[in-house]
Amino acid sequence: MNKDTLVEVAGLKTYFFTDEGVVKSVDGVSFAIKKGKTLCVVGESGCGKSITARSILRLIDPPGKIVEGSIKMRKTDGTELDITALSPKSPEIRNVRGAEISMIFQEPMSSLSPVHTIGEQVQETIRLHLKLSKEDAKERTVAVLKEVGIPKAEERYDSYPFQLSGGMRQRVMIAMALSCKSRLLIADEPTTALDVTTQANILDLIRDVQKEYDMAVMFITHDLGVVAEIADDAMVMYLGKVVERGPVDAVFHDPKHPYLVSLLKSIPKLSADRIERLDSIRGMVPHPFNRPKGCPFHPRCDRVMPGRCDTETPPRVILGPEREVTCFLYEEGK
Ligand code: SF4
Fold first, then answer.
1. What average pLDDT score do residues 267-285 get?
2. Which of 201, 244, 308, 320 has the fewest CB atoms within 10 Å around its CB?
3. Cβ-count burial 257-284 (b if 16+ within 10 Å, e if not)
4. Residue 298 CA: which ligand 1 atom is closest?
């Protein structure tokens, strides 16, 4: 593992074994999250981005299972931990959750207890991971609530989640991640349910705490605007596979994969001097049980090569340092 790498995922496959058949939610995904940097994972609903994130924390419930691949993490003491070798219920993985890696979701209510105050919940996380006395934990709780911009933190300590707005609840979740000094924050569409102003505030907060704590962020979104704003690196997924990956500037300014090219063409440009019709990607994301043969994007691709893309699996082509695309168009010699 590279010394700048915090988490390295190689050939990860997470499948769901249902009565109707096997859903290959994550099908051979490889990437790295660098220390203190932001990796944005982008794609349409059902592309496997959330399952990839949950696999890192071993939060896959049956009938789901990691069937292949490895997830390695560099711990605070510098040693490497093979997360895939741990049992999902082991004390080691419980220690990773919260202490090393925290996760926030689109709807904080799904993670917060409705019957405990926010202060109690943040304090509980602190006591569990930092082994502080009750008084010290309370002091730290109020300090982190202030740090994430919760007004009148001492009073808010006794509020229940339902008494807070969606944006404030998301701040509480970020406070939990900060409270135990996690080194990686996995944020799964944390701003999707918020209005635009609150969304901008939460993005600013994530950026600020990342800088302050040198925290790495894995940010999952379907919003390319958010990616452009916060990412150092970007990874585009389609039907369980990584179709393109690289530093965000390269991915945005020189997109290679036809799916990403089409996605970028579908964004309105403020600089356009005349009204233009936006492009859309034809067709729909296929049902997971009807996964197309060959390249999963071929039924929607404008550059499809019949006889090739619909029968063979496209190769993973390395275009440069940390830059890759999965498409026949970029095979060597093309
Ligand atoms: Fe299109 Fe073929 Fe490339 Fe898939 S492999 S994106 S179908 S050109």
1. 70
2. 320
3. bbbbbbbeeeeeeeeeeeeeeeeebeee
4. 7
